[in-house]
């Protein structure tokens, strides 16, 4: 058990941005929300997965929708609690713990704010170990945990409680509702029992985010290489370093696909949708989803999102291994390259 | 014929350019600390008297004012956005001493909009009036930022009228004009605009008076961080846009002198070498825009690496290398007073006055961005045309000649994590300065 205070948030948000693999939304706004909530309600208690009682009711709280809209329409700070209360009402029991659904991006911070407001402890872990775009792309799906009932709340006070025949269907319906509810909503879903955490979560990822953010900050302060520091914490490999010379965006077959070409010593092509998903170096695939493909600003070590990819950026592309459960056949079916419409198989990372 | 002036911390450079862009004369004088207009006067007085269509001036006064926390006005901050905008307070995350220097209190009132017309809520006029009386006597300026105001700035203008009715004629900065998406960033930028209104107003008045006397009939413009220009009226309204403008005009000037649109530029000064890169004739911009003590303010500024002087050649080589797309790809252009101390690279003639020349050759700029729902290509094209028109209008508000404004860049980015066709559109426009 430990506490997350205001001091931890900067590092954690920086690390979460890197773990967002180009997506997940900039944690900056989430950090401000978490800071404000901790300032008002005090620090948040965090438990390791094995400290949580077997009969605990652990609820992931997250925001869904467009991070770009989130930048304009800030969360009011009450939507997460509204969603949580609506979920508790249909569950017939109260949440005992809150947990992030994804550690990558803004959804690492939203649960901290929600936990502070609800006066509940947080679990150190998340259901992805990175960021993914859809609600069924979580480890709980692999162990048969349903993401419904799912509660969705908007800033106006509208609440939707959803039941669906599958985790995919819940995603489809909730995403459509999200558009009607202003393109940015808060969710509580994918409820886990305490004894399901070991199989349903990637452990200690909030700690990982904080260590990652700290390593980058310290390296910068010491005029060392922040990207190398990030690679060391991630246990990853540097795939390429160069400059973005071309970015192409198009929508084909329902997929909004982007491709960036980087030049340095050789070339690297990066395919992205909401996150960076595929990297080809000099024509050969070197990294694929579900492994983490993190694009970092070469000078600062700050993450570069898919939406921010543009000509002229100097970036280093880093590959880091995902949680091994994602590379099982069922895991790859949920979040492997073919799910995202790429005609290739998962290729494990190899040392550069 | 036109003139460019670059007021640096140590020296002020000036240049006369013919209409075809050729350099006719340059001059360097010592800057007058704390009085940029005096430096401008001294430099221009040393050049032959010629009939000028416009004079463009590069300044560092606003940046210095923020860094030193000097001359900043106390700002009352009004956010229009109701409940959804309450969780994060205005000025959150600002360095405490800067917030202390700037803050005169804030209010968050109902109103503001969303992506759809039905998302708009009426402005709580009474709450605006209460805000105004609450900051009366403390606020020397007011900043107004409304949710989704770049889509429709009416509520910000309405609120400004109410504030003016309560508090009389004080500077009121509105966020809608900045045209960027991201409420906190836009609000921070607007607060900065309001805080700098005193410095900027005095600067604009000083320059106007000096130049009316020295170059009667010439339009007067100042440089911006994105490498374009704006009028003095625009500077007085949006002084934050001038952050980063010094290096931006040096980069542009170096490119023009070397005849290159893409290059790495090293500006060798007395105390440091500033290295930046040009892409398509404009400075490559820092990711995320300007920051002040870690606070994003969104203004577009060049991405720079600074090497202290006296310098280690290895440090300079590394800085240049970091700005290259690949090993040795783009030419290096070396300018500035100390350019001789760097043997490698191109040393174009008049490189000592690159900042002044960059100011003189730059167009007046404007930009705009908007999130739209565009179900098909024709809807997207139509929306893009509307956004381009807003960017052209922004350039004209900044002082561009409406007959000659063109679009420099038009980009569409599909929003992540949303089904259906939500797209962020962004356009940049520029044109020559409007003649007086």
Summed up, what is this model?
The complex is a heterodimer of chains A (352) and B (436). Chain A is of the alpha+beta class.
Could you describe the 3D structure shown?
The complex is a heterodimer of chains A (352) and B (436). By secondary structure, chain A is α+β, with helices and mostly antiparallel strands. Chain A folds into 2 domains: 2-203, 3-Layer(aba) Sandwich (CV3147-like fold); 225-335, Beta Barrel (CV3147-like). Helix content of chain A is 32%, strand content 28%. Chain A contains 11 helices and 18 strands. Chain A has helices at 6-19, 27-41, 67-72, 79-91, 110-118, 139-142, 167-180, 197-200, 205-221, 226-234, 329-335; strands at 2-4, 44-47, 57-65, 97-99, 122-123, 125-126, 150-153, 159-162, 184-188, 192-193, 202-203, 237-252, 255-264, 266-272, 276-281, 284-288, 292-297, 314-320. In chain A, strands 16-15-14-13-12-18-17 form a 7-stranded antiparallel beta sheet, with helices on one face. In chain A, strands 3, 4, 7, 8, 9 and 10 form a 6-stranded mixed beta sheet that branches. In chain A, strands 1-2-5 form a 3-stranded mixed beta sheet. In chain A, α1 packs antiparallel against α2. The longest helix of chain A is centred in the middle third of the chain and has 17 residues, at 205-221. In chain A, 61% of the residues are buried. The model of chain A has no long low-confidence stretch (mean pLDDT 94). With 436 residues, chain B is α/β, with parallel strands linked by helices. Chain B folds into 3 domains: 2-66 and 205-361, 2-Layer Sandwich (Nucleotidyltransferase, domain 5); 73-195, Rossmann fold; 364-431. Chain B has 12 helices and 20 strands. Chain B has helices spanning 36-45, 61-68, 96-102, 125-135, 154-167, 183-195, 197-214, 232-237, 245-258, 313-322, 354-361, 377-397; strands at 2-7, 11-17, 23-30, 54-58, 75-80, 103-109, 141-146, 172-174, 219-223, 229-231, 263-268, 272-279, 282-283, 291-292, 295-296, 305-308, 332-335, 364-373, 406-414, 422-431. In chain B, the strands form 5 sheets. A 6-stranded mixed beta sheet of chain B has the order 3-2-1-4-9-10. In chain B, strands 11, 12, 13, 16 and 17 form a 5-stranded mixed beta sheet that branches. At the A-B interface, α2, α3, α7, β12 and β13 of A face α6 and β19 of B. Chain B: Residues 186-270 form the Hydantoinase A/oxoprolinase domain. Chain B: This is Hydantoinase/oxoprolinase. Chain B: GO terms for molecular function: hydrolase activity. Chain B: Residues 3-166 form the Hydantoinase/oxoprolinase N-terminal domain. Chain B: It comes from Nonomuraea pusilla.
